Amino acid sequence: MLFSLPARPRGAIAFFGATGAVGIAVVGFEMLVTGVAGVRWSIPLLLAPPAAFGIASLAGGRSRLAPYRSRPAAAWLASAAVFLLLVAYAAATARATSPDLVLFWGAKGERFALARGIDVAFLARPANYLMHPDYPPLLPFVEAFATMFAGRFAWGASLFLMPWFLGITGAIFHAAALRRLENARAAAALTAIFVGTLGLADLVSATAGSADGLLVAFETAALASLSAIGSRRLSEWTAGLCLAAAGLAKIEGVFFAAIVAFAAVALTRSSWRSRATSAWHLATAPALAFGTWLLFCRAHRLVAMYRADVFGAPTLRFLPRILSVMGRTASYDHAYVPWLALAASAWAFRRFGFAAVPVAAAGLFLAADVGFYLNGNSDPSMWVGWSSARTLTTVLACGFLSIGRTAIAGESRIMA
Would residue 175 be called left, alpha or beta, if left means φ above 0 and alpha means ψ between -120 and 50 degrees? Predict the structure, then answer.
């Protein structure tokens, strides 16, 4: 949507979302390739590709997106900014800090920065097994880049990644909403509700310093690309790159990439040859990115999670308890306000229609989430209670992204 060249995002909000997502993705992909190849990281090396990308984008022609027909509703956008400020305040005062920041995200980022690459020796130590040595590395890459630039790991500043990621997500959502709703006031209002809802979910689930916000940002970018770019090929390639970044952010991103590729192909009105081409566009980048990381881990004997014996065989024994705990955590400690906001938004904006792919992605991801908890022979209640509030933010985001008609006429089915 906003990542193609030549393209010039229209307005400061769209520009912020585009540059933020592109910068993270480009630097992350480069750190993966150079780290796997054994090339020592340096600031000039890592800055060269995004700098070239930015120059090419600014020197490019007009945006591929149609011009906006009216000015955004300032009051609604100001409300979204207030929500972001509240999230930033909560992050700054350690009201939403994820314990995983200290347990492994931050530790990996700091060690990668010291090693100027992927610290295999550190990951391979048996004492560090619980840091998940083979977990997708995009957030530690981002933290390592910032550490190298600043000269030290700033633990306090790392908490501001949560509002930064939320801001990128909201900016991308707003750009897509403008295209899909073709109504500046409606797009601004929906964006404000979206940012406020995800902000509340982030605070309650304590995501400051974790990769969940990064994951949702690229999930949002992928679905927004599929529904808001008029060119089908461009939308699919762009979505594929976003899905690759999502797969490198968290393991849930790998499942999400497969789900979105399946849903987009299954809900397309075209020939089987055209569907195969779409699958190729959507799946190539995620497969290459995650496959590269997985092969690297296998080569260095770092594989810990991706084994059949880690979680055990699936069982329905604990399904009632899993659903019960997920139901409680889904309230987000505020009487299910996020879901009520989603339902109210769907009703208020129903005249704009609904895109089918985000709806299908939400349902399939929720089923995969429950299915993941079914693996194992021990009661997963504690695990579900600790993690499901964060994983359910993907379902929330998909729900909001379903509001509005797709820009690709005749390609994706629309639920009226």
Answer: alpha
Please identify which residue in the block is written with the tokens 């400061």: 12
Residue 66 is given by DSSP the state P
- Cβ atoms of 223 and 239 within 8 Å: the answer is yes
**370 contacts 313 by C-beta, under 8 angstroms:** no
Cβ-Cβ contacts under 8 Å for 58 (sequence gap 6 or more): 8
The DSSP letter of residue 354 is E
Give, in order, the Cα–Cα distances in Å from 406 to each of 21, 159, 168, 262, 268.
22, 35, 21, 17, 12
Contact 377, 312 (CB under 8 A): yes
First-last CA distance in the chain = 24
Tens-place pLDDT, residues 126-180: 999 889 999 999 999 999 999 999 999 999 889 999 999 999 999 999 999 998 9
The per-residue pLDDT for range 197-227, each reduced to its tens digit, is 999 999 999 999 999 999 999 999 999 999 8
Cα 69 versus chain centre, distance: 29
Do the beta carbons of residue 160 and residue 94 sit within 8 Å? no
Q: How many CB atoms lie within 10 A of CB 327?
A: 11
Distance, in Å, from the CA atom of 41 to the CA atom of 65, rounded to the nearest integer, reads 36
CA distance 362 to 320: 21
Q: How is residue 316 written in tokens? A: 């329905």
Cα separation values, 267 from 218, 272, 279, 360, Å: 21, 12, 12, 9
Write phi, then psi, for 415 (nearest 5 degrees). -90, 110
Distance of CA 298 to the CA centre of its chain: 25
Residue showing tokens 């900016």:
171
**Predicted structure pTM score:** 0.92
The answer to whether 145 and 116 have CB atoms below 8 angstroms apart is: no
Give the model confidence (pLDDT) of 95-134 as tens digits.
Answer: 999 999 998 999 999 999 999 999 999 999 999 988 999 9
Query: In sequence order, which ranges of 205-231 are alpha helices (DSSP H)?
Result: 212-228
What are the backbone dihedrals phi and psi of residue 188, each rounded to the nearest 5 degrees, phi first? -65, -40
Tokens standing for 268? 């397309």
Supply 326's token pair. 């997920």
- The amino acid at residue 269 is R
